[in-house]
Amino acid sequence: MASSSKRPRSDQPGLPPRKPSRPYSRQFLTKHNETYFATVSSRKFILERRVELEDDEAPEFQNELTRRHWDKLGSYPLPANIAVVKEFYANALRPEEAIVPYTSYVRGVRVPFDAHTINKFLGTTLRPDEQCEYGQFEGGAIAVEVAEATMCMPGTSFHRNRAQQPLHVKRRDLLPVARIWSALIHANILPCSHVSDLHWSRAMLMHCIMTGRTVDIGFIMFIYDLDIKSSKCYFIY
């Protein structure tokens, strides 16, 4: 007679997947994560940048950064440990459904990276009566001319495709304060290695910032973290 204490298999339909009893090693959660580490190591890492301005320089930018409690976004205190960052991204891969989602594992320590945790770390949690307004513009529901008036130098505009859809604008064509916001977005919020242009997807975020709309920065960075799991570069917090 078969024993009734036999543990259910994770591949049996209708049954919860089996949780790993212990980490594979101090560095990696599973063997699969260890293998994935080689892939992570081959990719480019983008370092965050400090915002270094004089007290009387770009007051419009500095006042808005303070109003939003985004000071930590531009003032990371210590340089990143690249080896630890690589382990974080390698262990963020979820080969087993039982592993808690949006949580990585670094040197034996559980490291969550959900929107709530990011906001708590940065001190940017929205009040209960606040709602992120950026989501209203994600689908492109903003007139290009309105965005151009917000961030572009007079006489300049976004480059468009044949269907007249906005693509990008050259950094040199941005207003001075918009160039600072562009640098912060490209380095510390939605990072990318190509920073000479501001693409439309990032321009919508910058429009929301520059027009004082509510932005859930933790959620935006969290979604970006999920996207870059399959990209060729990684962001270092």
Automatic annotation (TrEMBL):
Residues 67-221 form the Putative plant transposon protein domain. Residues 1-25 are annotated as: Disordered. It comes from the Eukaryota. It comes from Cajanus cajan. InterPro entries: Transposase_32_dom (IPR046796). Pfam families: Transposase_32. This is Putative plant transposon protein domain-containing protein.
